[in-house]
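Write out the 3D structure for:
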Amino acid sequence: MKLATFAADGAAWTGAVLGDAIVALQPALDAACSASDQPAEWLPVDLRGLLAAGEAALVSAARAVAFAARPENAALRRPLAGVTLLAPLAPGKILGVGRNYADHARKSAGRR
């Protein structure tokens, strides 16, 4: 399963690539649950959350993709060319280290 984050219809979606198409996971899972008369399942809203949620969430995502891959569920797939792929994982905290801080402090000590 090739997971992706993409933009379409003014929103960011977590999805999976299926050949030359992409599937938004939550709408596909909603349709799969509805078709099998099962209670709704919720997936995390971003890819980082999906991966952190563990195996159960990935199994639900795989179920959504399998359901969307059926020929009769073509409406759940979007052409890959019609969406904008985003960075799959949004970065968390970015830390910088001031390795040259002592040099900078010495150089700017006389400036005031």
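Helices lie at 25-35, 47-53, 55-69, 101-108.
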